[in-house]
Amino acid sequence: MSEETIAETLPPVRNWPTAGLPGADFDPVLRELMDEGPVTRVRLRNGEGWAWLVTRYDDVRTVTDDPRFSRDAVVNRQVTRTAPHFVPARGATGFLGPPDHTRLRRSVAAAFTARGVERVRERSVRMLAELVEEMLQDGPPVDLTEAVLGPFPVAVICELMGVPAADRQGMRTWTRQILSSSHGAEVGERAEREMGAYFSDLIALREGSTGEDVASLLGAAVGREEVTLDEAVGLAVLLQIGGEAVTGNSGQLFHVLLTRPELAERLRAEPDIRSRAVDELLRWIPHRNAVGLSRIAMEDVELQGVRIRKGDAIHVSYLAANRDPDVFPDPDAIDVGRSPNPHLSFGSGPHHCPGGLLARLESELLVDALLDGRPGLRLAVPAEDVPFRKGTLIRGPEALPVTW
After folding, report:
1. Comparing C-alpha atoms, which of 229, 243, 39, 45 is closest to residue 151?
2. Is 189 helix (H, G, I), strand (E, B) or coil?
3. Nearest Cα residue to 250 out of 157, 122, 121
4. Sheet strand arrangement including 13-15
5. How far apart are CA 257 and CA 380, in angstroms?
6. What are the angstrom distances between the C-alpha of 338 and each of 113, 320, 331, 366?
7. CA–CA distance, 277 with 54 (Å, rounded to integer)
8. Are 220 and 214 in contact (CB under 8 A)?
9. Are strands 295-297 and 306-308 parallel, antiparallel or unpaired?
10. SS3 state of residue 388
């Protein structure tokens, strides 16, 4: 996009390095961008050029809900982005627009309804109890991330997806390679191809299935010729890697609870408020570095007095929207009584994350199991010594050493 073709005075382009941040620190560059104005311009570490960034809650909802801002128009463009990979290619599931996006999501919608999520609750509770029991048997100190917070979300999403237990570790390895920017594009792209080949075989085996897991639903949809096998595989990969966000969120959630013992004690004493507290923590936790996938303006659009030109790239920040003081009074505080709490941690619009109910279930089960099952749970190292992941899109502790 050429600045010479735009008559209006433009805000400066800010470089956004998105370095790994410790703990639950809010990104200082994002904070500055929020203070500079509702619509700013950024250049990220990869891709080309600059993009608009919107940070206010209402504007984020506008961009994500308005068909004048298109995901599929990003295809074959090197828009500035956080990751070295995730280059939008023709047919890439995350960049599909309606009606193809709507048709594809409809094929698996049943798995992510309240009934679909409840289907895996009992098995999830059993798997979590086994992991906690193994952790207690090993004795302190242990790495809570390695013992529970990592394997549990993988086990749950694999259960929902229909991936056999024997293949869970492989899924976890592929997912972390795909979501890491530190290994370079080649490693992430190879992991994505390998995961895609796995799901291609699994979905093909489930053609005509009447099962309720995602692979079976996709196999049945392929059998009915409602979706192609390539489309089914692309969606399966996207849903599988999306489950990794719960690992990062859970790590940050327990880092918060273990560094705020008064909050943990309140949740132990008042189990009735846990669900609301989990929702508030999901709002407050900075769960990713920088921003996700971009959109393209399909026509000139005015936003907060700024003219977004046709063809311009635009990013939204859900993290910033979740700290909008016009929607969330005292947004930097953790208020477990906050109501209403219309946070955007699972996105907004047609591309919102379908796994919101599942993520809430997992987080609530983890809080119940670890607060009730081990009342003396505490950090085994000073809070500042907890290592956090570097070079990843999803933030969270690399390890969370605990004792009791």
Report:
1. 243
2. helix
3. 157
4. 13-15, 39-43, 51-54, 313-316, 295-297, 69-70
5. 14
6. 25, 18, 10, 21
7. 27
8. no
9. unpaired
10. strand
Q: Tell me the residue type at 251.
A: G
Phi, psi angles (nearest 5°) of residue 228: -85, 165
Tokens coding 370: 């670890």
pLDDT above 90 as % of the chain: 81
Radius of gyration of the chain (CA): 21
Contact between residue 220 and residue 210 where contact means Cβ atoms under 8 Å apart: yes
Q: Write out the two tokens for 53.
A: 């960034």
Tokens in use for 144? 């809570």
> Could you give the CA distance from residue 123 to residue 128 in angstroms, rounded to a whole number?
9
For the record, the structure tokens of 318 come out as: 């859900």
The size of the chain, in residues, is 404
pLDDT at 143 over 80: yes
CA atoms of 243 and 178, how far apart (whole Å): 12
Where do we find the tokens 């070079």?
Answer: 391
Q: What's the rounded Cα separation, in Å, for the pair 363 and 128?
A: 11
Is the four-CA dihedral 77, 81, 86, 92 of positive or negative sign? negative
Distance CA 163, CA 158 (A): 5
E-strand stretches of 304-370: 306-308, 313-316
Please work out, in degrees rounded to the nearest 5, the angle formed at the alpha carbon of residue 314 by the alpha carbons of 313 and 320: 160
Q: Note whether 52 and 60 are within 8 A (CB).
A: no
Whether the ω angle into residue 17 lies within 30 degrees of 0, i.e. cis, is no
pLDDT value of residue 2: 41
Integer Cα distance of 369 and 363 in angstroms: 10
Tokens of 262: 């008064």
Token pair, residue 257, equals 């609870």
Evaluate whether 334 touches 280 at the Cβ level (below 8 Å): yes
Asked whether 310 and 299 are in contact (CB, 8 A), the reply is yes
CA angle 284, 285, 291 (to 5 degrees): 105
**Eight-class DSSP state of 148:** I
Q: Which two tokens stand for residue 169?
A: 């570790």
pTM of the predicted structure, to 2 decimals: 0.91
pLDDT tens across 393-403, in order?
889 999 999 99
Strands annotated E in 261-300:
295-297
If we measure between CA atoms, which residue out of 194, 162, 156, 198 comes closest to residue 177? 194
Task: Identify the burial level of 31 via C-beta atoms within 10 angstroms of its C-beta, where 0-12 means exposed, 13-18 middle and 19 or more buried.
Answer: middle
